[in-house]
């Protein structure tokens, strides 16, 4: 149920009813999602989509650091 | 896919495995809360990568599994009304109520539809003005803002034919119940990353302190889960019990402010019965009086009552609390399968029984 999928924002717009929407690319498949629940996003950002809503922006810096952390922790462990 | 594949890198998995073997000295039970995490664990064989002194307990994080029978009965009763279209997420249709499931109701003539998003239900309300659209809203804090927003949207669009049947539940009260239950023997918790993307993790700080358990906010990919377990074990071995965030690329401490605002605007926190677990105080969300025009329970007079005396045939309740594993059930892989489920955890794509059914080859117990 809490399944959420990361995707890249292709465009941000409002429909005729004034609802904030976004077109998001999920690795080649794009879909219109609701952007009413999030602020501070722009085209090109990666976001997490759940039941047709953007629930979170993905922090690129933290994403890379998570990988680097694993590499670092493990190197220390291998040395022991 | 970016932000998916990097976290499935076999080399990183190998490194984490070695780190875990070097770190875990004592015997520990770590519970992953979310059913999505359970599926990652089973699908990628993560439990087979752990040293034998680490045991994973599977938590109750499967909304379809914990939605009480009474709400399914209510949804069926509403769906059988003339002029009603009942919409819900796919898994919910195959969970049995007292007598049958929503799919059978559809077979008996009810207009029951699967939707991907509450927005699809709103679109149905706009398209079929002469029908009443009832959206069966289930889920945890991740889903509640989207479903709550649908109510706000219905108001904004002046829709008079959109109603929500709210069976929403909250994670922290259930965790407290599990941590008080000495049958579960939980040493550490991997909190559900997507619930925390909405709620943040401030409310987990008190729980970690009160019960003396490390709580690690954890993501859903194999390296996320292994790193979450490693962070938990490091704390346990050092005797530390605090909240840490493994899923930093998605979760911030305060969560999604807009999402939390929608929950507070539309819902009240109430006591709620969980299937297989009984009534958990302050663990459910019901629609506020102010939005009662959109509350399906106000619109449709029902005979259903919440009660916790429903006897479960199988061990689903113990599976949901991490007391037993699916293969300990007499019916597992025999009378009970995803095609013919007896308990809700075999229905849902997040249920522990379905995860074991699809991915678990070894039927013997590998832990004490």
What do these coordinates show?
The complex is a heterodimer of chains A (80) and B (368). Chain A is an alpha+beta fold and 80 residues long. Chain A has 1 helix and 5 strands; from the N terminus they run βββββα. Chain A has one helix spanning 60-79; strands spanning 5-14, 20-26, 29-34, 46-50, 53-57. In chain A, strands 3-2-1-4-5 form a 5-stranded antiparallel sheet, with no helix packed on it. Chain B has a domain at 5-60 and 171-245: HypD, alpha/beta domain 1 (Rossmann fold). Helices cover 39% and strands 18% of the residues of chain B. Chain B has helices at residues 10-23, 35-43, 46-49, 63-66, 69-79, 102-107, 118-127, 144-156, 171-180, 193-199, 202-211, 222-238, 257-266, 296-299, 316-320, 352-359, and strands at residues 28-34, 54-61, 84-88, 111-114, 132-137, 162-166, 168-169, 188-192, 215-218, 243-245, 267-274, 278-287. In chain B, the strands form 3 sheets. A 5-stranded parallel sheet of chain B has the order 2-1-8-9-10. Chain B is globular, with a radius of gyration of 21 Å. The chains are: A alpha+beta (80), B alpha/beta (368).
Q: What's the layout of helices and strands?
A:
The complex is a heterodimer of chains A (80) and B (368).
Chain A: E1 5-14, E2 20-26, E3 29-34, E4 46-50, E5 53-57, H1 60-79
Chain B: H1 10-23, E1 28-34, H2 35-43, H3 46-49, E2 54-61, H4 63-66, H5 69-79, E3 84-88, H6 102-107, E4 111-114, H7 118-127, E5 132-137, H8 144-156, E6 162-166, E7 168-169, H9 171-180, E8 188-192, H10 193-199, H11 202-211, E9 215-218, H12 222-238, E10 243-245, H13 257-266, E11 267-274, E12 278-287, H14 296-299, H15 316-320, H16 352-359
Number of domains of chain A: 1
Assigned CATH class of chain A: Mainly Beta
Q: How large a portion of the residues of chain A is in β-strands, by DSSP E?
A: 35-45%
Number of strands of chain B: 12
Largest protein-protein interface: A-B, 40 and 61 residues
Overall form of chain A: elongated
Helix content of chain B: 25-40%
Q: Please give the order of strands in the largest beta sheet of chain B.
A: 2-1-8-9-10
The multimeric state of the shown protein is: heterodimer
Question: What would you say the CATH architecture of chain A is?
Answer: Roll
The topology string of helices and strands of chain B comes to HEHHEHHEHEHEHEEHEHHEHEHEEHHH
Distance between the termini of chain A: 41 Å
> Which architecture of the domain at 5-60 and 171-245 in chain B per CATH?
3-Layer(aba) Sandwich
Give the termini distance of chain B in whole angstroms. Answer: 39 Å
Number of H- or I-type helical stretches of chain B: 16
